[in-house]
Amino acid sequence: KTLHLLLLLCISFYSAPTFAHQEPDQAGYIDVDGGKIWYRLNGIEHLGKAPAIIVMHGGPGGTHRGNMPYVELSDHYPVILYDQLGTGKSTKFIDDPDQHSTWTVEHFVKEIDQIRNALGLKEIIIAGHSWGGTLSAEYAVKNAKGLRGSIMSSPLISTPQWISDNQIWIDQLPAQARDAIRKNEAAGTTDSAEYRAAEEVFYDYHMCRKNPCPNRGYRAGAELGNNIMYQYMWGPSEFSAPGTLKNYDISPKLNDIKVPVLIICGEFDEAAPKSCYKFAAMIKDATTVIVPNAGHATMAEDHDFYMKSVRDWLKDNIEEP
């Protein structure tokens, strides 16, 4: 589903890794329904020689900065990161309710083809984290021409399953945090200080288990995400989803996917490993990787393991022998 927008502010004293400062080879805006989306491209020398990797960020309402580690793959692939309509550097309609018409799964999936058409991308690999993993799954079930593979990183596949898995995680929290979450959700007081404090305890266990979280280095300098979109489509927290995605479930269509798939998540991820294994079993050619002792912020918590896993999968499933 999402890297919670509050994590954009997570405190860290880690220096930003090299990829965080890597300038794009090309950047600009692409017209989509409802406005313009901003994109950045690295590995331009590989265009037409290797499939382009299009990477979708979390949220709804996050920004491309959470996916900056993927820029490393531009040594062998064209890599495109972008901000979805309504957030980051793209056209924003934060306070205009009439623009909620573009805050749909269908709209954000359509953006992928609009990027392909604008940049002339014949062969692609789609990758997405959390809510971006939703878009990766949605695009994969279409089996569009030129699609070579799909990476679903800590993906939201089924909201009911996500909520069920996270109720189990909540049950395992220290009693004070667990009880505060239950009490305030029952009372509808999810904006209370008590609830927010308990929410942070949950995130310490299941969002980013390292303190401080190492992702500040590559999130620094990001355009602001859109928390209004997040609440409209999802809800007040990672484990409460009264928004428009409350009944979302693409799992019945996973068997339609014909390309190789990588599902990668953390050992203590909000996208729980047991469900990632279950969803992978519904796909004809899927590999599942679990990042040890990691929560939802897998790229931050074990960057080297995560990126090696992605590279190994690309080598085994995409690259010519």
How would you sum up this structure, described in words?
With 321 residues, the chain is α/β, with parallel strands linked by helices. The chain has 10 helices and 8 strands. An 8-stranded mixed beta sheet has the order 1-2-4-3-5-6-7-8, sandwiched between helices. Helix 1 crosses helix 2 and helix 4 crosses helix 5. The two termini are 34 Å apart.
Count of individual beta strands: 8
What is the rounded Rg?
A: 18 Å
Strand order of the largest sheet: 1-2-4-3-5-6-7-8
Helix content: 25-40%
Per DSSP, the total helix count is 10
Instruction: Report the order of strands and helices.
Output: EEEEHEHEHHHHHEHEHH
Overall body shape? globular
Quickly give the structural class: alpha/beta
- Write down the oligomeric state: single chain
Low-pLDDT stretches: 1-16
Strand content: 15-25%
Question: What do the pLDDT scores average to?
Answer: 91
What is the terminal separation in angstroms?
A: 34 Å
Describe the largest sheet.
8 strands, mixed
